Amino acid sequence: MKLIFGANGKLGTDFKELFDSMGEKYIATDKNEVDITNGDFLRAYIKTMHQNYKIDTIINCAAYNDVDKAETEKELCYKVNAEAPANLAMIASEIGATYITYSTDFVFDGMMTNYLYNESTGYTEEDEPHPLSTYAKAKYEGELLISQIMENPENTSRIYIVRTSWVFGKGSMNFVEKIIELSKEKDELKVVDDQVSSPTYSKDLAYFSWELIKKGCESGIYHLTNDGIASKYEEAQYILEKISWKGNLIRAKREELGLLAERPKFSKLSCKKIKEKLGVSIPNWKDAIDRYFKENNNKRGK
Q: Which of 25, 45, 175, 223 gives 20 to 30 Å between its CA and that of 252?
Protein backbone atom coordinates (compact mmCIF):
# COMPACT_ATOMS: atom_id res chain seq x y z
CA MET A 1 0.00 0.00 0.00
CA LYS A 2 1.19 3.49 -0.89
CA LEU A 3 0.78 6.37 1.56
CA ILE A 4 0.67 9.89 0.10
CA PHE A 5 1.08 13.07 2.15
CA GLY A 6 0.09 16.41 0.62
CA ALA A 7 -2.28 14.50 -1.65
CA ASN A 8 -4.46 17.46 -2.67
CA GLY A 9 -1.71 19.62 -4.17
CA LYS A 10 -0.37 19.56 -7.73
CA LEU A 11 1.97 16.60 -7.36
CA GLY A 12 -0.25 14.64 -4.97
CA THR A 13 -3.18 14.99 -7.35
CA ASP A 14 -1.14 13.57 -10.21
CA PHE A 15 0.13 10.67 -8.09
CA LYS A 16 -3.49 9.78 -7.26
CA GLU A 17 -4.48 9.90 -10.94
CA LEU A 18 -1.42 7.85 -11.90
CA PHE A 19 -2.18 5.17 -9.31
CA ASP A 20 -5.86 5.11 -10.26
CA SER A 21 -4.91 4.50 -13.89
CA MET A 22 -2.60 1.65 -12.85
CA GLY A 23 -4.88 0.06 -10.29
CA GLU A 24 -2.37 0.71 -7.51
CA LYS A 25 -3.82 0.91 -4.02
CA TYR A 26 -3.01 3.97 -1.96
CA ILE A 27 -4.03 6.05 1.04
CA ALA A 28 -4.21 9.79 0.33
CA THR A 29 -3.94 12.34 3.13
CA ASP A 30 -3.62 16.09 3.26
CA LYS A 31 -2.98 18.68 5.98
CA ASN A 32 -6.63 18.70 7.04
CA GLU A 33 -6.33 15.03 7.98
CA VAL A 34 -2.70 14.66 9.06
CA ASP A 35 -0.50 17.44 10.43
CA ILE A 36 2.95 16.30 9.35
CA THR A 37 4.58 18.85 11.69
CA ASN A 38 3.21 16.92 14.70
CA GLY A 39 5.92 14.30 14.99
CA ASP A 40 4.31 12.10 17.63
CA PHE A 41 0.96 12.01 15.85
CA LEU A 42 2.67 11.38 12.51
CA ARG A 43 4.58 8.39 13.85
CA ALA A 44 1.49 6.90 15.49
CA TYR A 45 -0.57 7.43 12.35
CA ILE A 46 1.94 5.76 10.03
CA LYS A 47 2.55 2.86 12.41
CA THR A 48 -1.22 2.26 12.61
CA MET A 49 -1.59 2.43 8.83
CA HIS A 50 1.33 0.03 8.46
CA GLN A 51 -0.21 -2.46 10.89
CA ASN A 52 -3.51 -2.35 9.02
CA TYR A 53 -2.40 -1.99 5.40
CA LYS A 54 1.31 -2.88 5.16
CA ILE A 55 2.71 0.42 3.87
CA ASP A 56 5.50 -0.28 1.36
CA THR A 57 5.94 3.25 -0.03
CA ILE A 58 5.64 6.72 1.53
CA ILE A 59 5.37 9.67 -0.86
CA ASN A 60 5.77 13.14 0.61
CA CYS A 61 4.22 15.78 -1.63
CA ALA A 62 3.57 18.17 1.25
CA ALA A 63 5.60 21.38 1.27
CA TYR A 64 5.69 25.01 2.28
CA ASN A 65 6.04 26.69 -1.11
CA ASP A 66 5.39 30.40 -0.51
CA VAL A 67 8.97 31.54 -1.04
CA ASP A 68 8.40 35.15 0.01
CA LYS A 69 6.07 34.47 2.94
CA ALA A 70 8.64 32.05 4.32
CA GLU A 71 10.83 35.03 5.17
CA THR A 72 8.31 35.98 7.87
CA GLU A 73 7.20 32.42 8.75
CA LYS A 74 10.58 30.80 9.19
CA GLU A 75 9.59 28.41 11.98
CA LEU A 76 6.67 26.96 10.05
CA CYS A 77 8.72 26.74 6.87
CA TYR A 78 11.44 24.73 8.63
CA LYS A 79 8.88 22.46 10.28
CA VAL A 80 7.22 21.60 6.97
CA ASN A 81 10.25 21.58 4.66
CA ALA A 82 12.98 20.21 6.93
CA GLU A 83 11.77 18.55 10.12
CA ALA A 84 8.68 16.78 8.76
CA PRO A 85 10.38 15.26 5.67
CA ALA A 86 13.19 13.99 7.92
CA ASN A 87 10.69 12.50 10.38
CA LEU A 88 8.94 10.75 7.50
CA ALA A 89 12.28 9.36 6.31
CA MET A 90 13.03 8.03 9.78
CA ILE A 91 9.63 6.38 10.10
CA ALA A 92 9.87 4.90 6.61
CA SER A 93 13.24 3.45 7.57
CA GLU A 94 11.78 1.95 10.74
CA ILE A 95 8.99 0.14 8.88
CA GLY A 96 11.13 -0.77 5.86
CA ALA A 97 9.17 1.35 3.39
CA THR A 98 10.53 3.13 0.33
CA TYR A 99 10.42 6.90 0.78
CA ILE A 100 10.43 9.77 -1.71
CA THR A 101 10.33 13.48 -0.97
CA TYR A 102 10.95 16.65 -2.97
CA SER A 103 13.43 19.50 -2.84
CA THR A 104 14.13 22.45 -5.09
CA ASP A 105 16.46 24.04 -7.62
CA PHE A 106 16.58 26.99 -5.20
CA VAL A 107 19.16 25.14 -3.07
CA PHE A 108 21.66 26.59 -5.56
CA ASP A 109 22.66 30.26 -5.59
CA GLY A 110 22.64 30.71 -9.36
CA MET A 111 26.25 31.79 -9.46
CA MET A 112 27.36 29.04 -11.82
CA THR A 113 29.53 30.89 -14.34
CA ASN A 114 30.46 28.14 -16.77
CA TYR A 115 27.01 27.10 -17.96
CA LEU A 116 25.77 27.16 -21.53
CA TYR A 117 22.28 28.43 -22.20
CA ASN A 118 20.88 25.16 -23.49
CA GLU A 119 19.10 22.08 -22.22
CA SER A 120 22.21 19.90 -21.83
CA THR A 121 23.70 21.81 -18.92
CA GLY A 122 22.88 22.86 -15.41
CA TYR A 123 23.55 21.94 -11.82
CA THR A 124 24.27 18.27 -11.13
CA GLU A 125 23.59 16.29 -7.97
CA GLU A 126 27.28 16.62 -7.12
CA ASP A 127 27.35 20.43 -7.17
CA GLU A 128 27.48 22.07 -3.76
CA PRO A 129 24.28 23.86 -2.71
CA HIS A 130 24.33 27.45 -1.51
CA PRO A 131 20.72 28.33 -0.66
CA LEU A 132 19.81 32.02 -0.58
CA SER A 133 16.31 32.24 0.95
CA THR A 134 14.64 30.85 4.07
CA TYR A 135 12.60 28.53 1.87
CA ALA A 136 15.72 27.20 0.14
CA LYS A 137 17.68 26.89 3.38
CA ALA A 138 14.85 24.88 4.94
CA LYS A 139 14.71 22.56 1.94
CA TYR A 140 18.47 22.04 2.08
CA GLU A 141 18.35 21.39 5.82
CA GLY A 142 15.77 18.71 5.07
CA GLU A 143 18.11 17.19 2.51
CA LEU A 144 20.94 17.03 5.05
CA LEU A 145 18.78 15.45 7.75
CA ILE A 146 17.36 12.85 5.34
CA SER A 147 20.83 12.08 3.98
CA GLN A 148 21.96 11.18 7.50
CA ILE A 149 19.13 8.65 7.75
CA MET A 150 19.84 7.39 4.24
CA GLU A 151 23.48 6.78 5.10
CA ASN A 152 22.80 5.05 8.43
CA PRO A 153 24.24 1.52 8.16
CA GLU A 154 21.08 0.15 9.80
CA ASN A 155 18.80 1.68 7.17
CA THR A 156 17.49 -0.84 4.61
CA SER A 157 14.88 1.41 2.97
CA ARG A 158 15.33 3.06 -0.38
CA ILE A 159 15.17 6.81 0.17
CA TYR A 160 14.94 9.35 -2.64
CA ILE A 161 15.31 13.13 -2.55
CA VAL A 162 14.11 14.57 -5.86
CA ARG A 163 15.02 18.14 -6.69
CA THR A 164 12.71 19.79 -9.18
CA SER A 165 11.85 23.27 -10.46
CA TRP A 166 8.98 25.59 -11.39
CA VAL A 167 6.25 22.99 -10.94
CA PHE A 168 2.87 23.55 -12.57
CA GLY A 169 -0.17 21.28 -12.51
CA LYS A 170 -3.86 21.23 -11.84
CA GLY A 171 -3.97 20.54 -8.11
CA SER A 172 -3.54 24.19 -7.08
CA MET A 173 -2.61 27.64 -8.38
CA ASN A 174 0.52 27.67 -10.51
CA PHE A 175 2.45 29.98 -12.82
CA VAL A 176 0.51 28.94 -15.92
CA GLU A 177 -2.85 29.70 -14.32
CA LYS A 178 -1.53 32.88 -12.75
CA ILE A 179 -0.42 34.24 -16.12
CA ILE A 180 -3.75 33.30 -17.69
CA GLU A 181 -5.70 35.02 -14.90
CA LEU A 182 -3.56 38.16 -15.09
CA SER A 183 -4.00 38.26 -18.86
CA LYS A 184 -7.76 38.55 -18.34
CA GLU A 185 -7.34 41.53 -16.03
CA LYS A 186 -4.55 43.48 -17.71
CA ASP A 187 -3.41 44.61 -21.13
CA GLU A 188 0.21 44.85 -19.97
CA LEU A 189 2.20 42.31 -17.98
CA LYS A 190 5.70 42.52 -16.53
CA VAL A 191 7.60 39.24 -16.11
CA VAL A 192 11.23 38.77 -15.10
CA ASP A 193 13.74 37.64 -17.69
CA ASP A 194 16.65 37.20 -15.27
CA GLN A 195 15.40 34.06 -13.55
CA VAL A 196 16.25 30.95 -15.58
CA SER A 197 15.43 27.30 -14.96
CA SER A 198 13.08 24.56 -16.29
CA PRO A 199 9.27 24.55 -15.98
CA THR A 200 8.09 21.12 -14.79
CA TYR A 201 4.68 19.48 -15.25
CA SER A 202 3.59 17.74 -12.05
CA LYS A 203 2.14 14.90 -14.14
CA ASP A 204 5.60 14.15 -15.57
CA LEU A 205 7.17 14.59 -12.14
CA ALA A 206 4.83 11.97 -10.68
CA TYR A 207 5.29 9.57 -13.59
CA PHE A 208 9.10 9.57 -13.63
CA SER A 209 9.24 9.54 -9.81
CA TRP A 210 7.20 6.35 -9.86
CA GLU A 211 9.50 4.90 -12.52
CA LEU A 212 12.43 5.63 -10.18
CA ILE A 213 10.68 3.78 -7.36
CA LYS A 214 9.48 0.88 -9.53
CA LYS A 215 12.94 0.27 -10.92
CA GLY A 216 14.38 0.15 -7.41
CA CYS A 217 17.17 2.61 -8.17
CA GLU A 218 19.67 3.20 -5.41
CA SER A 219 18.93 5.76 -2.72
CA GLY A 220 20.15 9.29 -3.24
CA ILE A 221 19.46 12.72 -4.66
CA TYR A 222 18.03 12.93 -8.16
CA HIS A 223 17.26 15.94 -10.37
CA LEU A 224 13.97 15.70 -12.25
CA THR A 225 12.49 18.45 -14.41
CA ASN A 226 11.10 18.73 -17.89
CA ASP A 227 13.76 19.16 -20.56
CA GLY A 228 14.79 22.51 -21.92
CA ILE A 229 15.47 25.85 -20.32
CA ALA A 230 13.59 29.13 -20.07
CA SER A 231 13.36 32.41 -18.27
CA LYS A 232 10.11 33.28 -16.53
CA TYR A 233 9.56 35.78 -19.35
CA GLU A 234 9.95 33.07 -22.00
CA GLU A 235 7.60 30.74 -20.14
CA ALA A 236 4.98 33.50 -19.87
CA GLN A 237 5.47 34.38 -23.54
CA TYR A 238 4.76 30.78 -24.57
CA ILE A 239 1.63 30.60 -22.39
CA LEU A 240 0.27 33.90 -23.72
CA GLU A 241 0.91 32.85 -27.32
CA LYS A 242 -1.17 29.74 -26.72
CA ILE A 243 -4.17 31.78 -25.58
CA SER A 244 -3.67 34.38 -28.33
CA TRP A 245 -3.38 37.25 -25.87
CA LYS A 246 -3.12 40.60 -27.62
CA GLY A 247 -1.60 42.60 -24.77
CA ASN A 248 1.96 43.82 -24.17
CA LEU A 249 4.42 41.54 -22.36
CA ILE A 250 7.30 43.53 -20.85
CA ARG A 251 10.67 42.24 -19.68
CA ALA A 252 11.41 43.01 -16.03
CA LYS A 253 14.22 42.43 -13.54
CA ARG A 254 13.73 40.79 -10.17
CA GLU A 255 14.94 43.88 -8.35
CA GLU A 256 12.03 45.85 -9.84
CA LEU A 257 9.43 43.63 -8.20
CA GLY A 258 10.50 44.19 -4.58
CA LEU A 259 10.20 40.53 -3.57
CA LEU A 260 11.13 39.59 -0.01
CA ALA A 261 13.10 36.44 -0.81
CA GLU A 262 16.26 36.28 -2.86
CA ARG A 263 16.14 33.88 -5.79
CA PRO A 264 18.89 32.34 -7.93
CA LYS A 265 19.23 33.85 -11.39
CA PHE A 266 20.21 30.51 -12.92
CA SER A 267 18.98 27.28 -11.37
CA LYS A 268 18.64 24.88 -14.28
CA LEU A 269 19.04 21.29 -13.03
CA SER A 270 20.85 18.66 -15.08
CA CYS A 271 18.72 15.48 -15.28
CA LYS A 272 21.43 13.36 -16.86
CA LYS A 273 21.61 11.01 -13.86
CA ILE A 274 17.94 10.04 -13.75
CA LYS A 275 17.72 9.75 -17.54
CA GLU A 276 20.61 7.29 -17.52
CA LYS A 277 19.26 5.33 -14.55
CA LEU A 278 15.81 4.96 -16.12
CA GLY A 279 16.96 4.82 -19.75
CA VAL A 280 14.45 7.47 -20.76
CA SER A 281 14.11 10.86 -22.33
CA ILE A 282 12.00 13.50 -20.58
CA PRO A 283 9.58 15.74 -22.54
CA ASN A 284 10.49 19.37 -23.18
CA TRP A 285 8.75 22.00 -21.05
CA LYS A 286 6.88 23.37 -24.08
CA ASP A 287 5.49 19.90 -24.80
CA ALA A 288 4.51 19.70 -21.13
CA ILE A 289 2.61 22.99 -21.27
CA ASP A 290 0.93 21.87 -24.50
CA ARG A 291 -0.32 18.73 -22.76
CA TYR A 292 -1.38 20.69 -19.69
CA PHE A 293 -3.58 22.89 -21.87
CA LYS A 294 -5.01 19.93 -23.75
CA GLU A 295 -5.64 17.81 -20.68
CA ASN A 296 -7.20 20.63 -18.67
CA ASN A 297 -9.14 22.32 -21.48
CA ASN A 298 -7.32 25.60 -20.94
CA LYS A 299 -8.47 27.24 -24.17
CA ARG A 300 -8.86 30.65 -22.63
CA GLY A 301 -7.82 34.12 -23.58
CA LYS A 302 -8.62 37.75 -23.52
A: 223
